[in-house]
Design goal:
The chain is of the alpha/beta class. The protein contains 13 helices and five strands. Strand 4, helix 10 and strand 5 form a beta-alpha-beta unit.
Amino acid sequence: MARTGRPKAVLVLDASEREQLEAWARRPRTEQRLARRSRIVLRCADGLDNDEVAAELGVHPKTVSKWRRRFVERRLDGLDDAPRPGVPRTVLDEQVAEIVRRTIEETPADATHWSTRSLASSVGVSKDTVARIWRAFRLKPHLIGTFKISTDPLFVEKVRDVVGLYLNPPERALVLCVDEKSQIQALDRSQPIRPILPGTPARMSHDYERHGTTSLFAALDVATGKVIGSMHQRHRTLEFKRFLDQLDEQVPADLDMHLIVDNYATHKTPTIQRWLLRHPRFVLHFTPTGCSWLNLVERWFSELTSKLLQRGVHRSVRDLEADINHWMTHWNDNPRPYVWVKTADEILTNLARYRERISATGH
């Protein structure tokens, strides 16, 4: 029986059109409207009628008819949304480019960076316009990050050495990340900390009393996340040697130990060198100068600071050390190892790319 109703437009694609539509059909979530329209046209070009395409793609048959017709009339351009009526643009492309250029290349005469109001006044637009452009280009002049590029002449070799221990540790050996957290202060707030309340954060006084300092020597087992630590009043060669003795006593004698340390002077003194000669199972691996981020124990120190020291109240060094030892015991009851994922090649490639970017800016 012959079909009745309005005849559908004949839709035939050439090779370039099909290639473009297939590319659009794979667009990510932010472009799903265009992707859906492309899939409609592709299925229509495969010979399906409007009802079949609508059922397959979960849309209304009128939607299929609309985009079939739009494509036949205007080809690929027909899949774009038609211009909508509205207020004409008040900010020209040249002004957008000028705002971006000034934000990146210039600073105001009376400040180190632009604010939305100061730049808006200089360019002659509203502060909301500047804010929208900054959001669009992900510009944040009020923020500043920190960085330090190592100048260590053996940077590449040391990165490969340390990362190699993380990703491919030797057999029958422990890999320990070792460092000192020095000058930990026993601080007592001048007034009691106020507890958290609905709508009000916990509060503590800005001033405090100092009751002395201590230094924490810590060794983080990369494989298990457990920590061996000890407290000392100072952090000289003598204290570091005592900590090495402690590691030698607590780690089974049949295991070698590879210690990842920084370039602090106490790690390289003749006294330590002689100690290492008498204890050949200890091998020291030095991180590049200025690369504390390469030592995983620094991540553990960060947790200790945020979870204990930052809000802690201690009226004596003894109280402080007891609190730290209790926190370490609690940590070791349920240790969580930090998993290193980046290879040395990825680190070196990212650093090279970053240096190219900052060199391109003329800095």
